[in-house]
Design goal:
The structure is a single chain. This protein is mostly helical. It has two domains: about 70 residues, no CATH class; about 160 residues, no CATH class. It contains nine helices and two strands.
């Protein structure tokens, strides 16, 4: 009987909702405990493979270890204990907060640019229009992509992944912002006119969902490639 690698235990814990950081710490503790058990068997007169086999039997199978660990709900991630809050409420809060911060930054910059225009010509709209694009299109896609990555890395079901992306994109499609030489306006709202709803879904919501899916896929692909390279090295 070989020394346990705990690979099965690691995969099982991650799939059942234990965070990667906790899994690493738990496995370190189990390896240290196994070393102590093997040393104890050696003190009792067993050597080599016999000591390893006795320590493995005393430690228990990886499935038994997993059941004992998973019986402690405090070890599970928030996304597993309260998925409705993490994937249902958090996307709305984060999107709203990010949009509000972007608008606050744009308003502060607009005030500075207005002051500068009295002494030096400033390309006012050329500076604020990219911020408008970020607030209306870039930020919702990034937030939705981050929620998708979190859900996938936490082994959440496809339903929670779709909910987090869909809600983030929905709030993003409800934002509006306009800039001109005289003023800047911004807000969040939804019109129930059929033509307006169709416009928001086709030109705002669907592109945001598509962009978020692409960003999440690229991030996960790069992460998997780096992990594979690390294993090879």
């Amino acid at each position: 009987m070989a020394e346990p690698s705990f690979n099965t235990l690691r995969s099982l814990l991650l799939r059942r909702g234990v965070s990667p950081r906790r899994v690493r710490r738990l496995l370190e503790e189990l390896r240290a405990h196994f070393a102590d058990l093997r040393a104890e068997q050696a003190r009792d007169g067993l050597e080599g493979l016999a000591a390893t086999q006795a320590a493995v039997l005393k430690l228990g199978s990886e499935n038994c270890l997993a059941e004992r660990i998973l019986s402690r709900p405090e070890l599970l991630t928030w996304s597993r204990r309260w998925p409705w809050a993490v994937f249902g409420v958090a996307p709305l809060v984060v999107c709203f907060g990010a949009f509000a911060l972007t608008i606050a930054a744009a308003a502060g910059l607009a005030h500075v640019l207005h002051a500068l225009q009295h002494s030096n010509p400033v390309e006012y709209l050329d500076i604020l229009r990219p911020m408008r694009w970020v607030a209306l299109y870039g930020m919702p896609a990034v937030v939705a992509a981050c929620m998708a990555v979190l859900a996938i890395r936490r082994h959440a079901s496809f339903g929670w992944v779709a909910l987090s992306v869909g809600l983030g994109a929905l709030l993003g499609s409800m934002t509006n912002m306009s800039v001109s030489l005289d003023m800047m306006q911004a807000g969040i709202g939804w019109s129930f006119r059929p033509s307006r709803v169709e416009h928001l879904l086709v030109y705002r919501w669907l592109p945001t969902v598509a962009a978020a899916s692409v960003l999440a896929g690229l991030f996960l692909s790069v992460r998997r490639a780096r992990s594979a390279d690390a294993l090879v090295d």
